[in-house]
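User: Can you predict the 3D structure for this chain?
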Amino acid sequence: MTDAERRAEFTSFVRTHWSQLMTIAVAVSGSRYEAEDLVQTALTNTYGRWHKIRDGEALAYLRRSIVNAHISRWRRHRGAELTMADPPEAAAAERGAVAVDDRLTLLPLLRDLPQRQRAVLVLRYLCDLSDADVATALGTSTGTVRSQAARGLATLRRRHSRGEREPDDEPTQELVSLSEGAR
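Assistant: Here is the predicted structure, written as structure tokens:
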């Protein structure tokens, strides 16, 4: 087979199977633009070996070549910038705003709890201590820690769901007074 015949056969094959190759590449990569690059890479690599590929196995060879090209690209660009539909900064900012709102709502409710329940909840959830560590810190049993935590959480849930107390300026005033005292 001459070079011109091989080129004509390859071009005919590509024209016939282009949509199948693109479908495979889109399924593998998830992006039409990346799929075009993958198909082009696979075709470029395959053209040099076209004379060695058996007639009935060309499509399977190209499928595998597309998958291998995708895996190679993924390995090369692992840890690089990811393309996302929504920028992650917006989602992080929203979560941060919600966390601040929750904190401003929960701090006054937490302050209204009895001292022991408040201490247990702060040590257990803010300081991430185990029940045994909280019990040691407070000089009580682990059963007392569990019951105080359950009661405190139930009270917080009940008051939060009723909206008994709205966030006030106390946390902000505390921060202002602390920052003024540091000067």
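Residues 90-168 form a domain with the Arc Repressor Mutant, subunit A fold (CATH 1.10.10.10). Confidence is low (pLDDT under 50) at residues 166-183.
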